[in-house]
Amino acid sequence: MTLTQAILTEARRLGFALVGVTTPDPPPHYQVFEDWLKAGRHAEMAYLESLRSRQRRSDPRQILPDCRCILVLGISYPPSLDKPLQNGLPASVKQDVPGFTPLRGQIGSYAWQEDYHLWLPHQLKTLVAFIEKQAGKTVSHACYTDSGPILERDLAQRAGLGWIGKNTQLINPQYGSFILLAEILLGIELEISTPFEADRCGTCQRCQETCPTACILPNRTLDASRCISYLTIELRSIIPAELRPLIGNWIFGCDICQQVCPWNRRIFASGGEKNFSCQSEKLYPDLIELLTLDAETFSHRYKNSPIKRAKREGFVRNAVVALGNLLAHNPTHEQRTRAIQALHKAAQSDPSPLVRAHAAWALDRAGE
Fold this sequence. Notes:
Layout: H1 3-13, E1 18-22, H2 30-38, H3 51-58, E2 69-76, H4 91-94, E3 106-107, H5 116-135, E4 141-144, H6 152-158, E5 163-164, E6 170-171, E7 179-186, H7 206-210, H8 228-234, E8 250-252, H9 256-259, H10 265-271, H11 280-283, H12 287-290, H13 295-301, H14 311-327, H15 333-349, H16 353-365
Parallel strand pairs: 3-8
Antiparallel strand pairs: 1-2, 2-7, 4-7, 5-6
Helix pairs in contact: 1-5, 14-16, 15-16
């Protein structure tokens, strides 16, 4: 068994469903990234346009000068529900939630579990230790888990893991697009994998046609300023009023462009609804209850969750918007009364001006 084969085998043993090796040459679509920045599609994520960030994305050797290859890895994660939601929830969940109310939010499926930034780096370090043991020497390296200036999907496609779909996600024929990517830049040579050249999206445009905010662009990039995931996670300021009704009840992330992708059909068939009954409260939190969260409770509840990235102010802001949207869809009198009372309280006494402003909008949307 060659060193490369041994490394790929160990990576799979550690739980990486996808693994490949590519060169440290400049990413093939770097100019697309530059054009995206020039068009301002990165919204308020100014860190992306810094000179240092751009230089490193344009050439991985700017990160690790003696880099000889890049090991690209992918871990699949549970998909979000494949079926239309009823009042914001799948029908099967209703009976599993005590005191059910349809006034619940949706969370992007990557955030259902512990933040992968907390455990995936350990997996990478374990793999590096294995590589050094097999090589019989210390190997210069740099590890990334969606945490550094690397064009991950470009490298993943060149390493043979899949193709960049019209929904801007990396898509693998077997695992669909529900994939977390990671990279290890290595100062040793390994056998280079065959790039994934085929584009299997064909004429399908379901992701573009279904996106509520029309954020997906024809060149397989997106306008972050309109993306629900950006609006509910990265945006720290006011959500544009014209986009709020389009967010629906998403309060952290969004999976719509993945839910409609035909390449995720198999994932839904094998993944699915069996995961929902025992986690309903976690996956579809009560929006009214979220409005009562103070900073300490929020930090404790979401200590190891990706949701902590939104901070208490952003997360409650999202919950307020979602509640306003759901109130526009004829809840019962009791549900409406409870929601209106919660929004009035938030509008009058929440410590965050951002939350108060969005609560006032939600009341207006509800006709109050």
